Amino acid sequence: MAANGKAGGGVRRVLVAEDRSGQRLDNFLLGQLKGAPRSLIYRICRTGEVRINGKRAKPDSRISGGDEIRIPPVRLSEEGDKPAPSGAAMQRLERAVVFEDRWLLALDKPSGVASHGGSGISHGAIEMMRAARPGETLELVHRLDRDTSGVLIIAKKRSALSELQALMREGGMDKRYLALLVGNLRKPKVSVDAPLQKSILQGGERMVRVDAAGKDSLSHFKVIDRPGGHSYVEVKIDTGRTHQIRVHAQHLGHPVAGDEKYGDAEANRGLKAAGLRRLFLHAASLQFQLETSGERYVLNAPLPAELKSVLDRLAG
C-alpha cells in the first residue's frame, strides 16, 4: 500500500498500491505531500528529485501498482498555518452540488473558483468540499479552468475515481460545453483536429499552443445562435487537454469571448458593454456509463445567469 507520512525528514521511497494504477504522478505526490503547492510538485519533478523505479519522471507520468516512488524531503508549512476556507465559501459549494450518490458527486462549479489549490490559491473546490465534509473521502476526478464554470466531478470512492479517470483518458465520456466565440463562425459545424503542446512558464503559468509535437486533440464546434455578430456554440470534446477549447477556438480565428490569455483584447473590451466580465465558457454536461455503480449518468449544469444576460443583450 502507499505509505503515508509527514513531509520533511529524509528521502522516502513509497510503494504504489494497486488501486492507484493510472493516477498521474503529480496528483499522487499531492496526496503524499499534504499542503504542497502544485508549483513545488512540478519543481521537484523537473529537477529529477522525484523518481519512478529509479528513473526521472514528468508530473503527468502515469504510475502503476508496485512502482517505487522516490520522494525527496521538502519543507512545508504546518497544516494549521493555512487558514481554513470560510464558512460562506463552503456553503456556496454545498449549494452548487447538482447530483450525488454513494460513488460520486457533481458540482456546478462557479467561475472564479479553482478546481484545486496551488499557485497562490489556498483553497480550490476540492479543498473546500473536504473541509465541508471532514468525514468523507473525496478525490478530484478532473479539472476545469478557474474561470470556466460548470460540471465538475468528485469521486467518493477509490474504485469510482479509477474508473472515472480511465473514462476521461480513453474517451468514454460525452463532454459538452457552451461558449461564445468572437466573430461570425461561417460554417454551422466545424471540427478542429490539432495537437496541443503544453509548457509551463517561469512562475508556474501554463500556456498551450498548437504544435505538431503535441498530444492529439479533437474538438467539435456547432453554432447554436449568432448574437450581435458573434457565435454562440456547443463544443463537444473527444479529448481533455489543458485549455483545449480555448486554444482550438483561437486556432479557428474565433477565440472564446472574455479570454484574457488566448483571446482578442479589443473584442473583449467591446463585449464588456454587453456585461461580459468573465470567460464565456461553461461545462454544460457530462454523460457516461459507470460499471462500478451500474448506472448511466447524465450530469447537467444550466448556463449561468450572468452569461445568459450577455446573450440577451447581444441579441437585443
From TrEMBL:
Q: Does the keyword Flavoprotein apply?
A: no
Q: Which reaction does it catalyse?
A: uridine(955/2504/2580) in 23S rRNA = pseudouridine(955/2504/2580) in 23S rRNA; a uridine in RNA = a pseudouridine in RNA
The Enzyme Commission number assigned here is: 5.4.99.-
Q: Which family does it belong to?
A: Belongs to the pseudouridine synthase RluA family.
Q: Which NCBIfam families match?
A: rluA_subfam (TIGR00005)
Query: What PANTHER family does the record point to?
Result: MITOCHONDRIAL RNA PSEUDOURIDINE SYNTHASE, RIBOSOMAL LARGE SUBUNIT PSEUDOURIDINE SYNTHASE C
**Record's protein name:** Pseudouridine synthase
